[in-house]
Design brief:
Blueprint lengths: L9 E7 L2 E13 L5 E5 L5 E2 L6 H10 L6 H7 L7 H13 L17 H9 L12 H14 L12 H14 L6 E3 L5 E3 L1 E2 H13 L5 H11 L1 H4 L5 H8 L4 E5 L3 E5 L5 E6 L7 H11 L5 H7 L2 E4 L2 E8 L2
Antiparallel strand pairs: 1-2, 1-12, 2-3, 2-10, 4-7, 5-6, 8-9, 9-10, 11-12
Length: 318
Amino acid sequence: MSQPAATLPVLAEVIRSGFVEGRHHGSLVLLAADGSVELALGRPDTPVFPRSTAKPFQAVATLRAGLAIGGELLALAASSHSAEPFHRDAVREILHGAGLTEDALRTPADLPLDQVEAEALLGGGGRRSPIMMDCSGKHAGWLAACVANGWDTESYLDPAHPIQQLAQEALAEATGETATHLGVDGCGAPLLAVSLTGLARGYRALVLAEPGTEQRLVADAMRAHPEFVAGTRRADTWLMRAVPGVLSKMGAEAVQVVALPDGRALAFKVDDGAERARGPVLAEALRRLGVRGEVLERIGAEPLHGGGAVVGEVRAAF
Protein backbone atom coordinates (compact mmCIF):
# COMPACT_ATOMS: atom_id res chain seq x y z
CA MET A 1 0.00 0.00 0.00
CA SER A 2 1.39 3.41 -0.94
CA GLN A 3 2.35 5.96 1.67
CA PRO A 4 -0.16 8.83 2.12
CA ALA A 5 0.91 11.94 0.19
CA ALA A 6 0.92 14.05 3.32
CA THR A 7 3.78 11.98 4.72
CA LEU A 8 5.84 12.07 1.52
CA PRO A 9 8.25 14.95 0.89
CA VAL A 10 7.39 17.82 -1.43
CA LEU A 11 9.11 17.37 -4.78
CA ALA A 12 7.62 20.41 -6.50
CA GLU A 13 5.81 23.62 -5.61
CA VAL A 14 3.25 25.52 -7.66
CA ILE A 15 4.04 29.24 -7.47
CA ARG A 16 1.43 31.71 -8.76
CA SER A 17 2.03 35.45 -8.39
CA GLY A 18 4.62 34.81 -5.69
CA PHE A 19 2.19 32.63 -3.69
CA VAL A 20 2.58 28.90 -3.08
CA GLU A 21 -0.66 27.66 -4.61
CA GLY A 22 0.01 23.94 -4.31
CA ARG A 23 2.53 21.21 -3.70
CA HIS A 24 3.30 17.89 -5.35
CA HIS A 25 4.61 15.13 -3.07
CA GLY A 26 6.46 12.02 -4.11
CA SER A 27 9.43 9.69 -3.84
CA LEU A 28 12.80 9.83 -5.57
CA VAL A 29 16.07 7.94 -5.63
CA LEU A 30 19.48 8.83 -7.07
CA LEU A 31 22.15 6.17 -7.60
CA ALA A 32 25.88 6.84 -7.73
CA ALA A 33 28.00 5.33 -10.50
CA ASP A 34 28.76 2.27 -8.35
CA GLY A 35 25.04 1.61 -7.84
CA SER A 36 24.89 2.81 -4.25
CA VAL A 37 22.06 5.07 -3.13
CA GLU A 38 23.21 8.69 -3.19
CA LEU A 39 19.86 10.27 -2.27
CA ALA A 40 16.54 8.77 -1.21
CA LEU A 41 13.43 10.88 -0.66
CA GLY A 42 10.11 9.47 0.45
CA ARG A 43 9.84 5.72 0.04
CA PRO A 44 11.67 4.71 -3.13
CA ASP A 45 11.80 1.10 -1.92
CA THR A 46 8.00 0.84 -1.84
CA PRO A 47 6.55 -0.83 -4.97
CA VAL A 48 4.89 1.36 -7.59
CA PHE A 49 3.45 0.60 -10.98
CA PRO A 50 6.26 1.54 -13.39
CA ARG A 51 3.83 2.16 -16.21
CA SER A 52 5.70 2.83 -19.47
CA THR A 53 9.12 2.89 -17.81
CA ALA A 54 8.81 -0.92 -18.01
CA LYS A 55 8.89 -0.80 -21.82
CA PRO A 56 12.65 -1.27 -22.30
CA PHE A 57 12.41 -4.56 -20.39
CA GLN A 58 9.35 -5.53 -22.42
CA ALA A 59 11.38 -4.85 -25.57
CA VAL A 60 14.12 -7.10 -24.19
CA ALA A 61 11.46 -9.81 -24.07
CA THR A 62 10.69 -9.23 -27.75
CA LEU A 63 14.35 -9.88 -28.62
CA ARG A 64 14.54 -12.91 -26.35
CA ALA A 65 11.55 -14.30 -28.19
CA GLY A 66 13.77 -14.34 -31.27
CA LEU A 67 12.35 -11.44 -33.25
CA ALA A 68 14.99 -9.99 -35.56
CA ILE A 69 14.43 -6.29 -35.02
CA GLY A 70 16.78 -3.37 -34.53
CA GLY A 71 17.41 0.32 -35.07
CA GLU A 72 14.38 2.59 -35.18
CA LEU A 73 11.96 -0.32 -34.99
CA LEU A 74 13.51 -1.68 -31.79
CA ALA A 75 13.42 1.82 -30.29
CA LEU A 76 9.74 2.00 -31.25
CA ALA A 77 9.10 -1.31 -29.49
CA ALA A 78 10.24 0.40 -26.27
CA SER A 79 8.38 3.63 -26.94
CA SER A 80 5.58 5.81 -25.74
CA HIS A 81 5.37 7.44 -29.12
CA SER A 82 3.61 10.65 -30.12
CA ALA A 83 1.81 9.11 -33.12
CA GLU A 84 3.66 11.36 -35.53
CA PRO A 85 3.47 10.06 -39.11
CA PHE A 86 6.87 8.34 -38.90
CA HIS A 87 5.75 6.53 -35.74
CA ARG A 88 2.62 5.21 -37.41
CA ASP A 89 4.60 4.13 -40.47
CA ALA A 90 7.06 2.23 -38.27
CA VAL A 91 4.26 0.44 -36.40
CA ARG A 92 2.82 -0.66 -39.72
CA GLU A 93 6.27 -1.80 -40.89
CA ILE A 94 6.63 -4.11 -37.88
CA LEU A 95 3.13 -5.50 -38.35
CA HIS A 96 3.40 -5.93 -42.11
CA GLY A 97 6.74 -7.71 -41.68
CA ALA A 98 4.86 -10.33 -39.68
CA GLY A 99 1.99 -10.51 -42.16
CA LEU A 100 -0.35 -8.59 -39.84
CA THR A 101 -2.48 -5.48 -40.11
CA GLU A 102 -3.51 -2.84 -37.60
CA ASP A 103 -6.53 -4.99 -36.79
CA ALA A 104 -4.26 -7.28 -34.77
CA LEU A 105 -3.47 -4.53 -32.25
CA ARG A 106 -5.20 -4.86 -28.89
CA THR A 107 -4.40 -1.29 -27.89
CA PRO A 108 -7.50 0.80 -27.14
CA ALA A 109 -8.49 3.41 -29.69
CA ASP A 110 -6.89 6.68 -28.64
CA LEU A 111 -5.75 10.11 -29.76
CA PRO A 112 -2.03 10.86 -30.18
CA LEU A 113 -0.19 11.50 -26.92
CA ASP A 114 1.27 14.67 -28.44
CA GLN A 115 -1.27 17.51 -28.35
CA VAL A 116 -0.04 19.00 -31.62
CA GLU A 117 -0.58 15.68 -33.38
CA ALA A 118 -3.96 15.20 -31.69
CA GLU A 119 -5.18 18.61 -32.84
CA ALA A 120 -3.90 17.97 -36.37
CA LEU A 121 -5.69 14.62 -36.48
CA LEU A 122 -9.00 16.03 -35.29
CA GLY A 123 -8.65 19.12 -37.49
CA GLY A 124 -8.22 16.87 -40.51
CA GLY A 125 -11.31 14.85 -39.70
CA GLY A 126 -9.45 11.95 -38.15
CA ARG A 127 -10.51 10.03 -35.06
CA ARG A 128 -9.20 7.78 -32.33
CA SER A 129 -7.66 4.50 -33.43
CA PRO A 130 -5.51 1.72 -31.93
CA ILE A 131 -2.39 2.68 -33.90
CA MET A 132 -2.52 6.22 -32.47
CA MET A 133 -2.21 4.87 -28.92
CA ASP A 134 1.30 5.52 -27.61
CA CYS A 135 1.88 1.84 -26.79
CA SER A 136 1.15 0.50 -30.28
CA GLY A 137 4.86 0.10 -31.06
CA LYS A 138 5.34 -2.21 -28.09
CA HIS A 139 2.25 -4.20 -29.05
CA ALA A 140 3.40 -4.49 -32.66
CA GLY A 141 6.72 -5.92 -31.48
CA TRP A 142 5.00 -8.45 -29.27
CA LEU A 143 2.65 -9.49 -32.08
CA ALA A 144 5.53 -9.95 -34.52
CA ALA A 145 7.36 -12.06 -31.94
CA CYS A 146 4.25 -14.20 -31.53
CA VAL A 147 4.06 -14.81 -35.27
CA ALA A 148 7.76 -15.70 -35.38
CA ASN A 149 7.22 -18.36 -32.71
CA GLY A 150 3.82 -19.62 -33.80
CA TRP A 151 2.23 -18.29 -30.60
CA ASP A 152 -1.38 -17.22 -30.41
CA THR A 153 -1.84 -13.55 -31.34
CA GLU A 154 -5.31 -13.20 -29.84
CA SER A 155 -4.19 -13.81 -26.26
CA TYR A 156 -0.83 -12.02 -26.31
CA LEU A 157 -1.86 -9.77 -23.40
CA ASP A 158 -2.66 -12.68 -21.09
CA PRO A 159 -0.13 -12.70 -18.21
CA ALA A 160 0.38 -16.42 -18.84
CA HIS A 161 1.22 -15.94 -22.53
CA PRO A 162 4.85 -16.81 -23.43
CA ILE A 163 5.69 -13.23 -24.48
CA GLN A 164 4.39 -11.89 -21.17
CA GLN A 165 6.32 -14.51 -19.23
CA LEU A 166 9.49 -13.34 -20.98
CA ALA A 167 8.63 -9.71 -20.14
CA GLN A 168 8.13 -10.59 -16.47
CA GLU A 169 11.46 -12.40 -16.40
CA ALA A 170 13.30 -9.49 -18.04
CA LEU A 171 11.91 -7.02 -15.49
CA ALA A 172 12.75 -9.24 -12.53
CA GLU A 173 16.27 -9.89 -13.81
CA ALA A 174 17.12 -6.23 -14.33
CA THR A 175 15.53 -4.84 -11.18
CA GLY A 176 16.50 -7.73 -8.91
CA GLU A 177 12.96 -7.78 -7.55
CA THR A 178 9.97 -10.06 -7.61
CA ALA A 179 6.85 -8.09 -8.47
CA THR A 180 4.47 -7.59 -5.58
CA HIS A 181 1.29 -6.91 -7.52
CA LEU A 182 -0.10 -7.67 -10.97
CA GLY A 183 -2.28 -5.04 -12.62
CA VAL A 184 -3.41 -3.90 -16.05
CA ASP A 185 -1.72 -0.97 -17.79
CA GLY A 186 -3.58 1.66 -19.79
CA CYS A 187 -2.87 -0.23 -23.02
CA GLY A 188 -4.22 -3.48 -21.57
CA ALA A 189 -0.82 -5.10 -20.99
CA PRO A 190 0.08 -6.82 -17.71
CA LEU A 191 1.64 -4.41 -15.24
CA LEU A 192 3.99 -5.45 -12.43
CA ALA A 193 4.72 -3.37 -9.32
CA VAL A 194 8.39 -2.87 -8.43
CA SER A 195 10.26 -0.21 -6.47
CA LEU A 196 11.77 3.01 -7.79
CA THR A 197 15.15 1.81 -6.54
CA GLY A 198 14.68 -1.37 -8.52
CA LEU A 199 13.77 0.59 -11.64
CA ALA A 200 16.85 2.81 -11.31
CA ARG A 201 19.01 -0.29 -10.95
CA GLY A 202 17.24 -1.87 -13.91
CA TYR A 203 18.06 1.06 -16.20
CA ARG A 204 21.59 1.04 -14.84
CA ALA A 205 21.77 -2.62 -15.90
CA LEU A 206 20.58 -1.73 -19.40
CA VAL A 207 23.30 0.87 -20.06
CA LEU A 208 26.06 -1.20 -18.44
CA ALA A 209 25.14 -4.49 -20.11
CA GLU A 210 27.69 -6.14 -22.36
CA PRO A 211 27.51 -5.05 -26.02
CA GLY A 212 25.42 -7.45 -28.09
CA THR A 213 23.19 -8.59 -25.22
CA GLU A 214 19.47 -8.02 -25.50
CA GLN A 215 19.58 -5.43 -22.72
CA ARG A 216 22.32 -3.45 -24.39
CA LEU A 217 20.72 -3.71 -27.83
CA VAL A 218 17.54 -2.12 -26.48
CA ALA A 219 19.45 0.63 -24.65
CA ASP A 220 21.58 1.38 -27.69
CA ALA A 221 18.58 1.52 -30.05
CA MET A 222 16.71 3.89 -27.74
CA ARG A 223 19.69 6.20 -27.36
CA ALA A 224 20.45 6.20 -31.10
CA HIS A 225 16.84 6.88 -32.11
CA PRO A 226 15.19 8.89 -29.31
CA GLU A 227 12.58 10.40 -31.63
CA PHE A 228 11.17 6.90 -32.00
CA VAL A 229 11.11 6.42 -28.22
CA ALA A 230 9.09 9.59 -27.64
CA GLY A 231 8.67 12.22 -30.35
CA THR A 232 10.07 15.44 -31.70
CA ARG A 233 8.46 17.57 -28.97
CA ARG A 234 9.14 15.40 -25.93
CA ALA A 235 11.56 15.66 -23.00
CA ASP A 236 12.96 12.11 -23.31
CA THR A 237 14.03 12.93 -26.87
CA TRP A 238 15.56 16.27 -25.91
CA LEU A 239 17.54 14.71 -23.09
CA MET A 240 18.86 11.74 -25.07
CA ARG A 241 19.87 14.05 -27.92
CA ALA A 242 21.63 16.55 -25.65
CA VAL A 243 23.46 14.27 -23.19
CA PRO A 244 25.62 11.56 -24.81
CA GLY A 245 24.83 8.04 -23.66
CA VAL A 246 21.86 8.87 -21.45
CA LEU A 247 18.82 6.57 -21.40
CA SER A 248 15.54 8.23 -20.44
CA LYS A 249 11.95 6.99 -20.31
CA MET A 250 8.78 8.44 -18.91
CA GLY A 251 5.75 6.60 -17.66
CA ALA A 252 2.17 7.61 -16.93
CA GLU A 253 1.26 8.95 -13.49
CA ALA A 254 4.50 10.97 -13.48
CA VAL A 255 6.98 8.10 -13.22
CA GLN A 256 10.43 8.79 -14.69
CA VAL A 257 13.64 6.76 -14.92
CA VAL A 258 17.01 7.86 -16.32
CA ALA A 259 20.44 6.19 -16.47
CA LEU A 260 23.73 7.80 -17.43
CA PRO A 261 26.37 5.77 -19.28
CA ASP A 262 28.65 5.55 -16.24
CA GLY A 263 25.96 3.90 -14.10
CA ARG A 264 24.50 6.92 -12.34
CA ALA A 265 20.72 6.69 -12.37
CA LEU A 266 17.53 8.20 -11.02
CA ALA A 267 13.90 7.26 -10.63
CA PHE A 268 10.96 9.14 -9.20
CA LYS A 269 7.20 9.20 -9.01
CA VAL A 270 5.06 12.24 -8.29
CA ASP A 271 2.43 10.80 -6.01
CA ASP A 272 -0.60 12.52 -7.52
CA GLY A 273 0.56 11.77 -11.06
CA ALA A 274 0.80 15.46 -12.00
CA GLU A 275 2.53 15.78 -15.35
CA ARG A 276 3.29 19.44 -14.72
CA ALA A 277 5.69 18.44 -11.94
CA ARG A 278 7.67 15.94 -14.03
CA GLY A 279 9.93 18.38 -15.89
CA PRO A 280 11.01 20.51 -12.91
CA VAL A 281 11.67 17.42 -10.78
CA LEU A 282 13.57 15.69 -13.59
CA ALA A 283 15.76 18.72 -14.27
CA GLU A 284 16.68 19.10 -10.60
CA ALA A 285 17.35 15.38 -10.16
CA LEU A 286 19.71 15.48 -13.15
CA ARG A 287 21.50 18.48 -11.66
CA ARG A 288 21.94 16.51 -8.45
CA LEU A 289 23.61 13.79 -10.53
CA GLY A 290 26.00 16.33 -12.05
CA VAL A 291 24.35 16.83 -15.44
CA ARG A 292 24.66 20.34 -16.86
CA GLY A 293 23.52 22.10 -20.01
CA GLU A 294 20.76 24.16 -21.58
CA VAL A 295 18.59 21.07 -21.99
CA LEU A 296 17.84 21.15 -18.26
CA GLU A 297 16.29 24.59 -18.63
CA ARG A 298 14.21 23.30 -21.52
CA ILE A 299 13.04 20.23 -19.63
CA GLY A 300 12.47 22.05 -16.35
CA ALA A 301 10.47 25.00 -17.66
CA GLU A 302 6.84 24.73 -16.51
CA PRO A 303 5.33 28.24 -16.53
CA LEU A 304 1.94 29.13 -15.09
CA HIS A 305 -0.25 31.58 -16.98
CA GLY A 306 -2.81 34.14 -15.96
CA GLY A 307 -4.65 36.31 -18.44
CA GLY A 308 -2.37 35.16 -21.21
CA ALA A 309 0.83 36.15 -19.39
CA VAL A 310 3.32 34.11 -17.37
CA VAL A 311 2.56 34.73 -13.69
CA GLY A 312 4.42 31.87 -12.02
CA GLU A 313 5.91 28.44 -12.40
CA VAL A 314 6.08 24.90 -11.12
CA ARG A 315 9.52 24.46 -9.57
CA ALA A 316 11.44 21.68 -7.86
CA ALA A 317 11.39 21.88 -4.06
CA PHE A 318 13.98 19.36 -2.87
